[in-house]
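JOB MANIFEST
job_type = single_chain_structure
chain_count = 1
residues = 356
[input]
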Amino acid sequence: MRPRTTSPEAPAWASLKREVLLGTRICDLGVELETSPLKPRLDALHEEFERRGFRFRPYAWISTDWFAPDGCTGFAIPFYLAHPRLVRLERSQMLQVEGSTTEQCMKLMRHEAAHALDNAYGLRRRKEWREVFGSASAPYSSSYTPNPTSREYVLHLDYWYSQSHPLEDFAETFAVWLKPGSRWRSRYEGWPAMAKLQYVDRLMKEIADQPPKIRTRRKEEPSSRVRTTLQEYYDQKRQLYQDEGTPAFDGQLSRTFPCASEAPVAAPKLAAFLRRHREVLVRRVAGATGQHRYLVDHVVREMIVRAKLRNLCVHYDEKKSLRGSADTEGALIDTAILLTSLTSQFLFGGHNHYHR
């Protein structure tokens, strides 16, 4: 039976228990952009375009993720941002919510709007565009290896996303340029990326008062047509973060932590230690590295499995240590350093590329 929506503000499924809600199909949620917290944010984006003198306005619709299809002058926004209950569900399933704050959401909207703008005016076909950003026809690879020290690209979305493809480089550059009060002229002074920003500045002034070459209202994979249940959606989404090429966990774990035969008799098991401090480790490493919390948590879970299989232990006697003591903190630091190293392998060994 489909959950009955009593009103846009209080749909019937909002009060369902998590297990029941996960069995609901996305198309049965009935979420709409016009009656969601996303509407004021889209309005704010349109105001940014208006302040820049654009005749063009990108449209948006609710779908399963952030994306802007080729040839489309609008972009999709994930359904879980359309209601507070779905935001909470996303956080419980994925540990964080991409675009949950107004600032994060606006950053993503500006990025997607750049793709819509490119489609509307055919910007990628311009000779100078190709000279500045590269060939838009370059294939998207399944992963990319960014250079965190490079100053040839702007910094906007996480994971140095501007380095992933010429189209993303343009979208990130446009997003930095569009943001009110971004002070890009001083922020990127002396950077090679400044040439890209100056080109975007000239190009936008040229096309702002021109009508788009194409206009569409196409909406790919709208949430109203997605028959996948929320449980199936999250099972598939988590799989994207799974490790396809398992890092050499065993060797690195063994170099940091002793096996039971070499540890003091009272030394606690590493697997138990990781389970007990999993939340604080994920929070610390994700906060310090900027990596997705689910990705960091996935590495912790694999560390737990490997630690149990190899019967590894922590260096100190946790039974004699008070919570928050120097011994506990020392072990947490050692573990956080190792966790940072292992999660970095996902980034610098080829970060998964999700085409926005």
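[summary]
Residues 244-352 form one domain.
The longest helix spans residues 326-348.
exit_status = 0
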